[in-house]
Specification:
Layout: E1 8-9, H1 21-26, E2 30-38, E3 44-52, E4 58-65, E5 69-72, E6 92-94, E7 100-103, E8 110-114, E9 117-120, E10 129-136, E11 142-149, E12 162-169, E13 176-179, E14 184-190, E15 196-202, H2 208-211, E16 213-221, E17 227-237, H3 242-247, E18 253-258, E19 264-271, E20 273-278, E21 316-318, E22 324-330, E23 333-339, E24 346-348, E25 356-363, E26 366-372, E27 379-384, E28 389-392, E29 409-414, E30 420-426, E31 433-434, E32 443-447, H4 461-467, E33 472-477, H5 486-490, H6 499-513, E34 522-527, H7 529-542, E35 553-557, H8 563-569, H9 577-581, H10 589-595, E36 608-613, H11 621-634, E37 638-643, H12 653-671
C-alpha cells in the first residue's frame, strides 16, 4: 500500500493477500544435513540439503564458500533422501578431506561425489537396504552409519526390519554390521581421532524419547582389516540408569557427540528438561558413568534435546575453546546460547535473535545452523563467534513484506485435569485491509504432527497464508509436546485422543473468552497425528450439546482414523508407539475403539475435508476411504481428495498449492466468508 493510503474495510477471511498459494508452496523449503568445515586457508565451507517442493521435493545438495557463494553441487537431478524409519533424515555427510556422501533417494545407495560425478559406495539394493547419518573415519577409509534391512536382507528369521550400525568401505562394497543390539541402534558419533564411537539404543515398546540408552565403545581394526567395536558399555539412560529408579521412570538420552578434547557429550531428561551432560574426563567413559553426571548448565528451565523422529541433526556443538553453542526452547521459542562450562557463563545470541533452530554444526570458532525467526525466513546461517557476525547463506527474501507478518504470541491456558497447556497465537495482519467494526476473526486451530513434536516459531508461509487473509491461527503445543520438559511430555501417556483434544478445545475457548476471535467460527486442522486430533475433536463436539460445541469443521491431512489399524499396519519405528499413548493390545482394544474417529463417525455432524496421499506407507489411503464411506452413509458434508504420487507429508509444489486452495475454499464455505482468491470449488458431498 502506498504511504498514507487508507486500509480498505473487508470482512475477515476476505482480505486479499500478497502471499498466493504458489508463493506459499515455493517458500516451503526444508533443510537438513548441515556440515561445516574449513579449507586450508582457514575459510569456512558449509554444505546442506534442500528439499524443494518446486522440484517435486527433490533433496538438492548445496554448498557455500567465500569464493563461489551458494550453489548446487552434485550430478544434475540427483536427490538425497533416506528412508530409514520411513521419516528419513541424515541423508548427507562429508569426510575429513571434504568428500561428500549422500543417500540416493531412489536406490538408497550411498554415493560419493567425485569431480562432480556420483560414484556408488554401496550397491543399489533399493528400499530393502537403507542408510542414514554417516560419519567418516579420520583416514577417510570407512563410514559408520545407520543401516536398516528389510525383507530378505534382514535375514530369513527376521520378524521385522533390522536397525543396526554398519561400517562401509568408502572404496565401495556392501558393508558389514558393526553393532546390532536391541530393537534399534542409531545415531553414531565418532571421536575426533576415530578411536571411540557412541550411539543410541532402545527397544520395544519404548520410543527413543521414552528410554533411549547411550552406549560407547572403542573402535579397533579386526582380523579382517575392517573396524570392530571393543569394550562396549552403557554410559547413561534407559531403564537401568540409576537415576531412573529414583525418578520412577526411565531416562531418555539423545544427541550424542564428542568434544574436541575427547569428552563424550549428550542430552538426557533426568532433570525433567533435556539438558546437556558430558563425561567427567576424555576417553571411553566407564559403565554407567553418565548415571551420576550433573547437567553442564544446571537450573535452566529450557529444552536442548529433541525427540528423535529423523536421523541426523544436532542442537549443539562444542567449540575449539571448550565453550558449547546450543539451541534451547522455552515457551515455544528457540534461542541460541553460547556457554562456558568452566565458569557457567551463558550468553544469548541476539544478532539476529532466532525463534526456531535445528541442525547445528560447529567448527573452530564458527557455527552453521538452520534457523529462522517470526520475521526471518528459515534458512542456513553461518555464525562467526570471534566477530559476532551472522550471515544468511541463501539470502532468503521474506515471502511477504515485514509489515504484513503476524508475529506469534506465546499463550498458556487452563485445560483438563487442572493442567495448563500452551500454544502460539497469530492474530490476523494486513496493511491493506481492516475488518468492519465489531467483527472478530475466525480461528484456525493448527495441530502439529508427532504427537511428540512442537509448533515451530518461524516465519511460516503455511501460517501467514491464513493470517494475511484475516484468519487468526492458534498452534497448540498440547500436553505431550516437546519443549516443556519430560513431565509435560508424559502427560499424554495413555491419554492420546483425550488430553490433546481437551487442550485444543480449551485453547479455542480461551481465545474466544478473551474476545480475540469469533466463537462461532472456529475450525481445526492437522496432519498425521494432528489429523487424528482434529477428527477426534470434531467427534467430541458431536457428543456435546450444541451450545458446548467448539469447532464448525475440520480438515485432516493424511490423518489417522483407525487406531487399531495404525497399530497393526504401521512401520517398525512406530509399531509400539501406541502402547504408551493409548495402551497395549489386546488388553486396550476397547480404548482403541472408543478413541478412533472411524468408530465414532456417528458423532460427526460438522463438515470434514480429508486430504490424502495415495502412496502413504504410514497412514494408508484405506483409512481415509473408510471414514469417507461412513460420512457418506450418514449424510455429513465431506470431501476426500487423493493426491497421486504423494506419501506421508506432501512434497510437491502442485500438491501443496492444490491443498491450500481446497482448505481455503472449504473454510470460506463453512464459515461464511468469500475468499479474495480465485479458487476451484471444493468437492463437498453429503
Amino acid at each position: 500500500m502506498a504511504p498514507g493510503a487508507v486500509p480498505v474495510e473487508r470482512p475477515y477471511g476476505s482480505w486479499p493477500s500478497p502471499l498466493a498459494p504458489a508463493d506459499a508452496a515455493a517458500a516451503g523449503v526444508r533443510f537438513g544435513g548441515v556440515h561445516l568445515a574449513h579449507r586450508p586457508d582457514g575459510s569456512p565451507v558449509v554444505r546442506w540439503v534442500e528439499h524443494r517442493p518446486a522440484e517435486g521435493g527433490r533433496g538438492v545438495l548445496c554448498r557455500w564458500d567465500p569464493v563461489g557463494g551458494t550453489r548446487d553441487e552434485g550430478p544434475p537431478g540427483s536427490s538425497a533422501r533416506s528412508l530409514v524409519h520411513e521419516y528419513g533424515g541424515g541423508a548427507s555427510w562429508c569426510g575429513p578431506d571434504g568428500t561428500r556422501f549422500w543417500v540416493d533417494a531412489r536406490t538408497q545407495a550411498v554415493i560419493a561425489l567425485e569431480d562432480g560425478v556420483g560414484r556408488p559406495v554401496t550397491p543399489g539394493d533399493g528400499p530393502s537396504v537403507r542408510h542414514a547419518a554417516g560419519v567418516v573415519t579420520p583416514d577417510g577409509r570407512w563410514i559408520i552409519c545407520e543401516r536398516e534391512l528389510h525383507g530378505g536382507a534382514a535375514g530369513a528369521d527376521a520378524l521385522e526390519p533390522v536397525n543396526e550400525l554398519a561400517v562401509l568401505a568408502t572404496a565401495g562394497g556392501p558393508g558389514r554390521t558393526l553393532v546390532r543390539a536391541g530393537d534399534f541402534t542409531a545415531a553414531p558419533a565418532l571421536s575426533v581421532d576415530g578411536t571411540l564411537v557412541a550411539w543410541l539404543r532402545w527397544g520395544h515398546p519404548d520410543m527413543p524419547w521414552d528410554a533411549a540408552e547411550l552406549w560407547a565403545a572403542e573402535v579397533r581394526t579386526g582380523p579382517s582389516g575392517w573396524p570392530e567395536v571393543a569394550g562396549a558399555r552403557r554410559i547413561a539412560g534407559g531403564r537401568d540408569d540409576r537415576r531412573s529408579r529414583q525418578l520412577g521412570r526411565p531416562v531418555a538420552v539423545c544427541l550424542p557427540t564428542w568434544g574436541p578434547d575427547g569428552r563424550l557429550w549428550w542430552c538426557d531428561d533426568a532433570t525433567d528438561w533435556w539438558h546437556l551432560h558430558r563425561a567427567p574426563a576424555p576417553g571411553l567413559p566407564a559403565e554407567g558413568a553418565g548415571d551420576t553426571a550433573a547437567p553442564v548448565l544446571p537450573g535452566r528451565g529450557e529444552e536442548v534435546g529433541e525427540p528423535r523422529w529423523v536421523a541426523g541433526g544436532a542442537r549443539y556443538g562444542v567449540l575449539a575453546d571448550g565453550r558449547v553453542l546450543f539451541a534451547a526452547s522455552s515457551a515455544g521459542l528457540d534461542d541460541v546460547w553460547v556457554a562456558d562450562p568452566a565458569t557457567g557463563r551463558c550468553e544469548r545470541w541476539d544478532a539476529p535473535r532466532f525463534g526456531h533452530v535445528e541442525h547445528v554444526a560447529v567448527d573452530g570458532h564458527r557455527a552453521a545452523l538452520v534457523a529462522g525467526s517470526p520475521t526471518l525466513p528459515t534458512s542456513v546461517w553461518l555464525l562467526d563467534l570471534s566477530r559476532g557476525e551472522a550471515v544468511d547463506l541463501r539470502g532468503a527474501a521474506p515471502p511477504l513484506p515485514v509489515a504484513e507478518v503476524s508475529v506469534p504470541e506465546p499463550v498458556s491456558f487452563p485445560t483438563g485435569d487442572g493442567a495448563v497447556a500452551h500454544g502460539l497465537f497469530y492474530p490476523p495482519r494486513s496493511t491493506t485491509s481492516v475488518a468492519p467494526p465489531g467483527e472478530r476473526p475466525p480461528l484456525l486451530v493448527r495441530i502439529h504432527g508427532g504427537p511428540t513434536a512442537a509448533a515451530r516459531a518461524e516465519l511460516s508461509t503455511s501460517v501467514q497464508f491464513w493470517t494475511s487473509r484475516g484468519i487468526a491461527v492458534l498452534e497448540v503445543n498440547y500436553r505431550g509436546s516437546t519443549g516443556y520438559g519430560r513431565r509435560y511430555r508424559d502427560l499424554l501417556r495413555g491419554a492420546w485422543g483425550v488430553a490433546d483434544v481437551e487442550d485444543c478445545r480449551a485453547g479455542a475457548r480461551y481465545l474466544a473468552e478473551l474476545g480475540r476471535i469469533d466463537a462461532r467460527r472456529r475450525v481445526i486442522r492437522g496432519g498425521s497425528a494432528g489429523g487424528f486430533t482434529a477428527l477426534a475433536a470434531l467427534c467430541r463436539d458431536g457428543a456435546a450439546p450444541p451450545a458446548e460445541r467448539v469447532f464448525a469443521a475440520a480438515c485432516s491431512l493424511y490423518g489417522v482414523t483407525d487406531l487399531a489399524a495404525l497399530a497393526s499396519g504401521t512401520h517398525k519405528f512406530e509399531s509400539r508407539y501406541l502402547d504408551g499413548l493409548v495402551g497395549a493390545l489386546p488388553d486396550a482394544a476397547g480404548t482403541y475403539r472408543e478413541r478412533s474417529p472411524l468408530t465414532l463417525a456417528d458423532r460427526l455432524v460438522a463438515p470434514v475435508l480429508l486430504l490424502q496421499g495415495a502412496e502413504d506407507p504410514i497412514v494408508p489411503l484405506g483409512q481415509a476411504e473408510v471414514l469417507r464411506d461412513a460420512l457418506r452413509a450418514r449424510g455429513v458434508p465431506h470431501a476426500l481428495v487423493v493426491f497421486e504420487g504423494e506419501a506421508h507429508g506432501f512434497r510437491r509444489a502442485g500438491t501443496i498449492v492444490r491443498a491450500l486452495e481446497l482448505e481455503l475454499a472449504f473454510y470460506g464455505r463453512v464459515l461464511g466468508f468469500e475468499p479474495a482468491d480465485e479458487l476451484p470449488p471444493v468437492p463437498l458431498e453429503s
